[in-house]
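A favour, since you know our structure tokens better than I do. Go ahead and set the record down below.
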Amino acid sequence: MEDLDIIKKSQKKNDKVIPVKLTADSKLKFRCHKGVKCFTACCHNVSIVLPPYDILRLRRRLGLSSAEFYEKYAQLEVLDKTLLPVLTLKMQDDEKRSCPFVTPDGCTVYEDRPNICRYYPVGMASLRKQDTETGKDEFYFMVKEDHCLGFEEDTVWTMAEWRADQRADLYDEMNRGWMEILIKKKSFGLNELPEKKNEIFFKVSTDLDYFRMFVFESSFLNIYDIPPEQVEKMRNSDEELLKFSYEWLKHALFAEETLELSDNEEVAARKEKIVAKFAAKSGKK
């Protein structure tokens, strides 16, 4: 699932977004394969935002730590409309600004390619709406590039069939919490978060190694009341830890009640310290 502004960020400037909201049953006639003359043309001169699960899949495929992946394959950018820092895929320094994973024979990380590549030429937008039960309006739309000949192929899909074939549903599920954070921040307008919160958002959403140390090598598990079975799942599964990171980010950035504090002496002492600081500041005014 992608927010509309992120999808625009991940497209080329001359892409044509067809202004029609499409449903899961809408039809798409498209097929991309090595026999199409434009094969891999869409893998050049494009900005690809990397949500957390995309980063996890790529760096795991490449056998890299979060820091190593960032240094070699990614770069920092700030998203329009949210002013949140994210990673984008670093293109090669050649005339075409080629994807670092593209070859004449196709994508070298195809099984673990970013979700925006899986959806192409389809985009999925998630917009906040006040009059819907979930507060969101999710829909599909079509992106057409002038050079793309895939639309001339005979294979016909529904949007749901295309999404399932590309395994985009898994990526949507794993990135959903992160997208909810971006959408919530977008609703605040161009008000910047405090620098510390921006740093927290960036570190937690781009560096799962850092978050793992934060959770398991600090007093984190003494502060928050997390069921033992969930803690064990997070120890053994990157995916479970990643999903938990979204809940903690909502708590840390927006004070959402996604986590419960433990009822112990350490938490009580921290609360007293906060109260004392606040009282001291109030007394100075």
The chain has a mean pLDDT of 87. The longest strand covers residues 136-144. The chain is about 45% helix and 15% strand. Residues 4-185 form one domain.
